Amino acid sequence: MEPMHIPSSIMFKHMLEQNKGLAGKTSRGRPHMAALLDDVPLVREDRLALVTFEAADFHLKFAGIGVETGRACLRACLDAAVDRFAACFPGCTLLFIQEASPGDAVFLFEHAAGDRSELFYCYLAYRAAVLAAVADGPRQPAGGDLDLRIGFACLEPEDGLPASEALFAAVCKAKRLSRQTIDAAAIPSRSELATLFAKGLAGVVYQPIADLTTGVVVGWEAYARSPSGIPVQDALRLFEMTGSTDKALEVEQGLWRLALAGVGELSSRQKLFLNVGPACLCARDSQIGAFSRLVEEHGLAPGQIVLEFSERLSPGELLALPELLDGYRSRGFLTAIDDVGTGHSNMMLLARLRPDYFKADVALTRDIASNPFKRVMVETLVLVAEKIGAKVIAEGVETELALTSLVSMGVHAGQGYHLGMPAFPKPEGGRAMPPRAGYGQVAAGDWKCASPVGDLIEPCLAVGTDRCIGELKEMLADKPVMCSAVVVDGDTPAGLVMNYNLDKALSSKFGVDLYHRKRVTRLMDASPLCVEHDTPIEEAARQAMNRAPAKIYDDIVVTRAGRLAGTVSVQKMLDTLAKVQVELAKGSNPLTGLPGNVAIEREFARRARDGHPSCMMYVDLDNFKVYNDVYGFSQGDRVILLTARSLREAMAREGAPGDFIGHVGGDDFVVIAAPEATDAIANAAVALFAAEVPSLYTPEDRRRGHIRGKDREGRVREFPLITLSIGILECLFETHVTFEDLSHRVASVKKLAKAQAGNSVVRDRRAPLGAAAR
Q1: What distance lies between CA 636 and its chain's CA centroid?
Q2: For residue 646, what pLDDT is reported?
Q3: In the sheet that 723-731 helps form, which strands lie side by side, from edge to edge?
Q4: CA distance 630 to 683
Q5: Which residues lie below 8 Å from residue 135, measured CB to CB, with a gap of 6+?
Q6: Rounded to whole angstroms, how far apart are CA atoms 261 and 490?
Q7: Helix 675-692 vs helix 633-654: angle between axes, to the nearest 10 degrees?
């Protein structure tokens, strides 16, 4: 190509003189780039690319530093950009530098690359080199370092498209790329891409999507695997950034073929979710027809296929999306908007798109249990979806707490490692879902649970009233948004600081200056909800629900005799209430939550059927009735709960995973365990109970060692403190044993145990029940 004159702005003349690659070129005025393209027919448009260079918000900093200093700042930055061009873009010729405004320039250059991906790797190196050079240079006197944004794009000429429009489109694309955070480590290497196209996709895996009400798998999302091990989505992202739509389509269509071929049979209610990238926007009509034929070839109906379009498309691509979705919907396909909550769309656009599914991004579901703002966003999304007849699928469900939170918010379906790993062939099994937990059931009075809130206590951060807010923020820096700190005066709670409220105050205008050195008492809630450790969970939930709306999800402070014991999160409390209700529905005891008579009979029948040798322990309280009469039912419930807790702890220490505890009713309990562990469990339960039960009496009664009350005949007399009587009966199940046989034998062993004074453990010395004749 013959040397040509390169126009430039007067402002950049000094750079052109210093740039060896542009030596000998002269400056003539400030024409637009489009005019240059029209004047230079020897430069093919498909060989042109550009780099954009922008000092973001420079006009704001320029106002405070003066003209000369501002120009010096820009000169240093632009010199660094020009000086590093030749090294980072080898074989490319810089043609033109256009100043759009101070701090905003475009570099147009000619390239000979046959593959745009090669130019993108050059751009990554160039971007890093320029930013590093500016960062290592003299500090800019502009009220802080300049925010430099460097973008890149190739011109994409089309028949009949004026050069000015191709140029404008490329500048816009480069500007969008300059605002993206690019993780160079996630960009596939040249060799990895070569392997991908040489060998094709290695296979496909399917991740289950579960209904959050029934636990049934309602669909699968297909993911491709590459032979080089790189995530295929990373390769597609690279092609999107470089404008390589042909390569993106090739990879995407390969994924579709593999996914459709390997998914197997689907019921009418099950769906296959396939990702559709921006490449299909460039060939929408032919693409829709080809895809329809592909689905038919694999014996699937359009209504079984859900096409996922990412919300992370550019604003222009999102505007074109409604027409594209209509094209697929007219063929019977279902649609989903992926990555909701992290892209460029808004509620109005989502309403226009009218997808069948909204897929809430993992950024929304992460820490959903502890972030009230995310909860509001997800609940709003569910409301919008239901209004337009769509469903919400939560992505990234990775913990049981996240699952219970999403269920409580009414989210329709979910996917994530906690619900199922991607696998081939597609995972078929569902799972049990936690009950839906919310304040609504508490308000209606439908939920009952007398277990103490102290059972749910979690350790908490406690700080003194003399601590500074800045110190507290450092302590909470790596904690979840919903984490809290209790402000204490000695051992007594004086207030509560929720992490999200702290962030809200410090992020406000002048927030750091106003609060950083102030004491925590300045921002703490001086009247948080505080309850004693023995408060029933049901009552604690009712009090939490009646708080001001702004505090309704704040932690509950739990005390023991007025001293800080810990905190309880609202979600954990609601989850516990919901689980208790499920157990109640199964016949469990409403006070202890232990399985009731139906479950006891089923456990006995199962062991009898399996011929599994076992021992049954019948546990009864001595002197409980008179205690109930003297101290009242509320205190009586505490004795029952102590008994249940003692049995659980004894089982945890001495028992095995398959052992069973049931609550017959009142003060009667049953334990079924392996014969060799029964004595140890019984003795441990007696020791635990005996150590704790005196605390349930007044100091006077404890000193006396007895209480005065009426016996069954109405006579007043003295009764010892409550004790445990445990009768043990061995069952071999070598012959048929009925539950009635068991009841008769247990009654006699229980009578023997209760005949002994104090805490007692009595084993039946007769032949084991169900023993074969010897």
Answers
A1: 42
A2: 94
A3: 660-665, 668-673, 614-622, 723-731, 760-763
A4: 28
A5: 145
A6: 68
A7: 140
What is the structure's pLDDT at 760?
93
- Predicted local distance difference test score (pLDDT) of residue 33: 52
Give this prediction's pTM: 0.52
Q: What does the alpha-carbon distance between residue 275 and residue 256 come to, in Å, rounded to a whole number?
A: 9
pLDDT of residue 210: 92
Q: Is 635 helix (H, G, I), strand (E, B) or coil?
A: helix
Per DSSP, helices labelled H in 567-665 are 570-585, 597-610, 624-631, 633-654
Name the stretches of the chain with pLDDT < 50.
1-31, 39-42, 142-143, 439, 441-446
Cα Rg of the chain (Å, integer): 36
pLDDT of residue 117: 72
Angle made by CA atoms 451, 456, 459, in degrees to the nearest 5 = 150
CB 350 within 8 A of CB 319: no
Q: How far apart are CA 666 and CA 381, in angstroms?
A: 47
Cα angle: 669, vertex 673, 675; to 5 degrees: 125
Phi, psi for residue 171 in degrees, rounded to 5:
-65, -45
Q: Partners of 48 in the beta sheet?
A: 110
Residues 476-512: pLDDT tens digits? 877 765 588 999 999 899 999 988 788 888 877 777 7
Position 557 scores a pLDDT of 94
- Contacts of residue 96, Cβ cutoff 8 Å, sequence gap at least 6: 6, 7, 8, 33, 36, 107, 108
Closest CA to 452 of 634, 664, 714, 649: 634
The angle at the Cα of 46, spanning 43 to 49, to the nearest 5 degrees, equals: 85
Least Cα distance to 590 among 542, 632, 536, 546 occurs for 536
Q: Which two tokens stand for residue 111?
A: 């390239």
pLDDT for res 718: 92
Per-residue DSSP letter, 721? P
Q: What is the pLDDT of residues 294-335, one digit of tens each?
A: 888 888 999 999 988 876 665 666 666 777 777 788 888 998
Q: Which amino acid is at 424?
A: F
Cα of 772 vs its chain's centroid, Å: 56
Single-letter amino acid code for the residue at 485: A
Instruction: Return the SS3 of 54.
Output: strand
Sorted by sequence, the CB contacts under 8 Å of residue 382 that are 6+ apart come out as: 392, 409, 410, 411, 412
Answer whether 102's CB lies under 8 Å from 74's CB.
Answer: yes
Residue 755 CA to residue 737 CA, distance in Å, equals 27
Closest CA to 423 of 203, 207, 257: 207
Q: In 3-state terms, what secondary structure has residue 79?
A: helix
Q: CA-CA distance, 52 to 701, in Å (whole number)?
A: 86
Spatial distance between the Cα atoms of 229 and 390, rounded to a whole number of angstroms: 35
How far apart, in whole angstroms, are the C-alpha atoms of residue 116 and residue 539?
66
Kindly report the backbone phi and psi dihedral angles of residue 610, in degrees, each rounded to the nearest multiple of 5, phi listed first: -85, -10
Question: Using the 8-state DSSP alphabet, how is residue 531 labeled?
Answer: E
First CA to last CA distance, the chain = 109
The one-letter code for the residue type at 658 is: G
